């Protein structure tokens, strides 16, 4: 996004604020340009929120995940009163939405990445899973849904409402066609050099055929520490719903476990909380869990490698003169995800840190500079 575009969004946030001055941002986030600001008393969100948040989608982004709902804001409005501790959302003008800003801290950072959740937060997480499972998918049919980014049914056709194998194959096809192949012209050599090949996705697709059936539910799709906010009362809130979808409920658990980096003991604890929650709301949602969860998590590991390799390349390229300084830390991050997916990628050994740095350095030399209006 250009400086002018970002400034325009900031000006819009200032115009909506109580005094036109107290605007915080841009807030961290890949998919949106976002600003928080104090709400005027007449704003419909002011009764429950001190500040509001204006979020505008960034143009020119690469999408690494399937999208189901065209509007995160309309989904949040539909979920008000049905899902606890999510941002209150209002349409303040035609097509202009504001969310209540959740004051607090994220669970991300430092030693907390390996720390167990407290009993209170585990209970609230379980309640979220239960509430999501209780919503019938057809109750959200009046919200515009997008089956694919391209509209190509050959890439991603709708599955039956309990076809977990078809659901996972659709995710794999999206990663194969819309992420790997679509970007192979720019990032293909880098991916190949690091040992990331399409064959891994083909093998995952074969594994997906063995999944059992589970009734589909609403999924958050991105429950990681940055999207979990602890407020001043110690309650856990759930934000950033742009990757929400209708699908296999076990996928939400797999995504959460993959992103949270729990200890094995904590992982088992969360699995049991999830199982009890979804079975209470809709019996059968945890069927075949023991066999199918490892298959879903294998996909998440491969998807994360492809995503992180490409996004890291974009970030380094955008850094321009600072790219060389960023390379060591970026390479360590990429090496960690390669190590996590070593088995799925068929790597006999994980590339050394030096080799990862060299791969990015070589890619930078041959990579075209991004268009000035393209956000990294």
Distance between the termini: 8 Å
Unreliable sequence segments: 110-114, 148-157, 371-376
What structural class results from the helix and strand content?
Answer: alpha+beta
Helix content: 40-55%
What labels describe this entry?
alpha+beta; 5-stranded antiparallel beta sheet; disordered C terminus
Structural account:
With 376 residues, the protein is α+β, with helices and mostly antiparallel strands. 46% of the residues lie in helices and 11% in strands. The protein contains twelve helices and ten strands. The strands form three sheets. Strands 1-2-3-5-4 form a five-stranded antiparallel sheet, sandwiched between helices. Strands 6-8-9 form a three-stranded antiparallel sheet, with helices on one face. The chain is globular, with a radius of gyration of 21 Å. It starts with a helix and ends in a 10-residue tail after the last helix. The C terminus is likely disordered.
Question: What's the helix and strand layout?
Answer:
Layout: H1 3-16, E1 23-24, E2 32-38, E3 51-57, H2 72-79, E4 89-93, E5 96-100, E6 105-106, H3 119-134, H4 164-181, H5 184-193, H6 199-208, E7 217-219, E8 228-230, E9 236-238, E10 245-247, H7 249-260, H8 264-281, H9 289-319, H10 323-340, H11 342-345, H12 353-366
Antiparallel strand pairs: 1-2, 2-3, 3-5, 4-5, 6-8, 7-10, 8-9
Helix pairs in contact: 3-8, 4-6, 4-9, 6-9, 7-9, 9-10, 10-12
């Amino acid at each position: 996004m250009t400086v002018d575009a970002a400034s325009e969004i900031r000006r819009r946030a200032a115009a909506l604020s109580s005094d036109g001055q107290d605007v915080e941002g841009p807030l961290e986030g890949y998919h949106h340009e976002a600003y928080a600001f104090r709400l005027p008393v007449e704003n419909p969100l002011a009764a429950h929120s001190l500040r509001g948040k204006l979020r505008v989608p960034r143009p020119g982004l690469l999408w690494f995940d399937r999208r189901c709902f065209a509007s995160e804001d309309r989904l949040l409005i539909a979920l008000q009163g049905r899902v606890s501790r999510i941002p209150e959302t209002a349409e303040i003008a035609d097509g202009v939405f504001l969310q209540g800003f959740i004051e607090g801290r994220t669970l991300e950072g430092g030693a907390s990445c390996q720390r167990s959740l407290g009993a209170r937060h585990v209970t609230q997480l379980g309640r979220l899973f239960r509430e999501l499972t209780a919503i019938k998918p057809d109750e959200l049919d009046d919200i515009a849904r997008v089956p694919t980014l391209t509209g190509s049914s050959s890439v991603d056709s709708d599955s039956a409402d309990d076809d977990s194998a078809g659901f996972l194959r659709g995710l794999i096809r999206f990663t194969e066609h819309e992420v790997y192949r679509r970007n192979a012209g720019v990032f293909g050599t880098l991916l190949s050099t690091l040992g990331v090949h399409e064959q891994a996705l083909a093998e995952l697709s074969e594994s997906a055929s063995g999944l059992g059936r589970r009734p589909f539910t609403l999924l958050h799709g991105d429950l990681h520490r940055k999207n979990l906010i602890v407020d001043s009362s110690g309650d856990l809130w759930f934000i950033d719903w742009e990757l929400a979808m209708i699908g296999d409920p076990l996928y939400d658990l797999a995504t959460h476990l993959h992103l949270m980096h729990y200890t094995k003991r904590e992982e088992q604890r969360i699995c049991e909380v999830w199982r009890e929650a979804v079975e209470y709301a809709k019996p059968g949602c945890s069927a075949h869990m023991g066999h199918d969860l490892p298959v879903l998590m294998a996909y998440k590991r491969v998807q994360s490698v492809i995503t992180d390799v490409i996004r890291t390349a974009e970030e380094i390229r955008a850094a321009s003169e600072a790219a060389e300084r960023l390379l060591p830390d970026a390479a360590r991050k990429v090496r960690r995800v390669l190590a996590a997916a070593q088995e799925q990628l068929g790597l006999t050994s994980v590339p050394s840190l030096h080799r990862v740095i060299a791969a990015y350095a070589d890619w930078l030399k041959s990579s075209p500079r991004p268009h000035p209006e393209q956000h990294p």
